[in-house]
Amino acid sequence: MLCFGRLRLQTFESSTRCVMRYRNRWMVGILAAALAAFAAVAQSARAATTVADSGGIEVKPSDLATPSRGMTMSEVTNKFGAPVTKIPAVGNPPISRWEYPGFVVYFERDHVIHSVIANS
């Protein structure tokens, strides 16, 4: 019996191991595809502005570049410059806010957790 390029004895135990190995590799492939799809959706969702008017919610596309989730404070400063206003951290975990022209960045400790585009 051939199992991923290795010759195995034809017993029930060895064939079961071969099937389990194949199933595990298949599950890893499915998981990788699901993560790639989630990343694509998250990327497209990040480039939108949500506006609430008259009780409804409207999502508008936006071309404004904002920091990505997980960036550090120093990476944000290097890429977008110094913020107009720095609001000090409050709470536990500490959440701080940096305000830029056109958007606001929220940090947990020193990592970006969210970027919000200001209403225009």
In brief:
The protein has two helices and eight strands. The protein has 120 residues and is α+β, with helices and mostly antiparallel strands.
Q: Assign the structural class, choosing from mainly alpha, mainly beta, alpha/beta, alpha+beta, or little secondary structure.
A: alpha+beta
Shape: elongated
List SSEs in N-to-C order.
EEHEEHEEEE
Number of strands: 8
Enumerate how many helices there are, as a single number.
Answer: 2
> What fraction of residues sit in β-strands?
25-35%
Average residue pLDDT: 76
N-to-C CA distance: 67 Å
Provide the helix percentage.
Answer: 25-40%
Low-confidence stretches: none
Query: Radius of gyration, rounded?
Result: 24 Å
What's the structural domain tally?
2
The spatial strand order of the largest sheet comes to 5-6-7-8
Major sheet characteristics: 4 strands, antiparallel
